[in-house]
Amino acid sequence: MPRPVPPQVIPRPAEWRLGGPPPWAAVGSERRASISLDQVLAAFGAAGQRGPVPEGAGLDAIFTPPPLLTERDGPPGELWPAQANAGVLVPLFEEDGQARIVLTRRSTELRTHQGQVSFPGGRLDAGEDTTAAARREAHEEVGLDPSLVTIVGWLHPLTTLVSSSLIQPVLATLAARPHLVPNPTEVERVFDVSLAELADLHVFHEERWRIPGRAIPGSEDDSFPVWFFEVSGEMIWGATARMLYELLGIVLGAR
Fold this sequence. Notes:
Nucleoside Triphosphate Pyrophosphohydrolase, four-stranded antiparallel β-sheet, globular
């Protein structure tokens, strides 16, 4: 009998409301229902995000961090490192013509982000770049053989709201479904879902969060979006959901 999924702590503020649909809602259902790996690679090429991570890849506008939930004090410029200090691997493979993506659920015994869905990844060791860290962490967390990983692109670096990490996501492909074994000290579950599943409009919802007294430039009511994907018995939110939001926006041409 499978273990029940422990409830996640989602720090909703007192003032929040449901937001709007995702940008890919305007994309035809047939296109959303079938997404191949070739389509992913072509879309990232068209977006200029194929190949190695470029020097100084800046934050995408939609990922400008609202440092509203951190317990640290000080102006926003002092909250985040100037360069990425963590790398995550976004692994894709194809099965039955559908691009699938590998995700993990973090152990509830970890110090931060307990029980949350994430990509394999973590902080850089001395002398590492973000790609090397992403490969190493994927091997340590789920036993993914680094020799099977082909780096094909990148997503914009983004911040977490509570652990002052600046994360560089690295897009990778695998030639076939990998054999993965979660390291129980770090990972409770490793699973995969198709991009078509994630693009289903019933899987996604947006919430608008508002912290009284905090101004959000460009927002009429000083709220900011938080995105959620509910799939495979898991609730995906936070930085991982923001990565998926960018990825699907690129692949479906709906950024």
